[in-house]
Structures are given as C-alpha cells and as structure tokens.
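Notebook entry, structure prediction.
Reason for the run: the old model in the group folder had no record of what sequence produced it. Starting over properly, with the input documented here first.
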Amino acid sequence: MHWDAVTIGSIVAVAICVVIFVYVIYKVGALMKSDAEKHKQ
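New structure, fully documented this time:
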C-alpha cells in the first residue's frame, strides 16, 4: 500500500472522529448518571 499524504490524513481524520465520538458518549453517559442521581433525591 502506498502511504501518501492523503492516506495518512484520512486515517488521522478517522482516528480524531473516533476519539470525539467516544468522548461524547462518555460525557452523555456521565450526564445521564448525574441527572438520575438528582431525580432520586
């Protein structure tokens, strides 16, 4: 496989998207958990 700038750029872009996606899911999960705690009280 030929590793040119476009290929490396695409892989980096996908990696960044995955990191952001995981971070957003984590933040939403934490928010839902804290929201559930508030509703219990």
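Summary: The chain has one domain: 1-41.
The old model has been moved to the deprecated folder.
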